[in-house]
From TrEMBL:
GO terms for molecular function: oxidoreductase activity. It comes from Nocardioides imazamoxiresistens. InterPro entries: CE1759_FMN_reduct (IPR023932), Flavoprotein-like_sf (IPR029039), FMN_Rdtase-like_dom (IPR005025), NAD(P)H-dep_FMN_reductase (IPR051814). This is FMN reductase. Residues 4-159 form the NADPH-dependent FMN reductase-like domain. Keywords: Flavoprotein, FMN, Oxidoreductase.
Amino acid sequence: MSVRIAVVSAGLSQPSSTRLLADQLAAATTAAVGDATLHEVGGGPEVVVDVVELRDHAHALADHLLTGFASGELAEAIGRVARADALIVVTPVFSASYSGLFKTFFDVLEPETLAGTPVLLAATAGTARHSLVLEHALRPLFAYLRAVTVPTAVFAATEDFGDSTLAARVHRAAGELAAMVVGRGGGRLGERRSAALPGPDEEFGEVVPFEALLRRSHEQ
């Protein structure tokens, strides 16, 4: 059995602190899955890490927004994310939120693609003043996408790299993501959970047009 982890990095430069944090989180999660399954009979699952560097797909993403179709390497990247058992997503902070490139990638995914999928949230910026972006921007986005975010999100300002406190947060978040994957026996969580999740019509019931509501109020 294998566990597939997709790492989505939205860094714009090469090298980038965003990719550096993404690699640290991927390595820590791989180790945490191994630790969590150390005593399993026959050994633990193989961890396969697929890195999606959004910088390489920027033009294709713009084309996708205009045409509605993904092609070539972008289609392959979307497929890797759709098949993943868990995600690690890392974005730089621009204008107090996630980057446009990061948002565009998740805009073009089909609805329910990430339903039930465990996601580790992370962000980088030049200063710690942007750390709340994890809670006021990223977590609501993935809640809307019906993903399951781990409790610990990781923010790294420039001065945090090489600091022991960042390493502690990385290992804590990675452990939480590994526990979610291993605790559910691996496999595509979204496929198992999506059947139990109500669709929009079931969740909200029949939608009554606003004009009909107004007529009812006048008739009463």
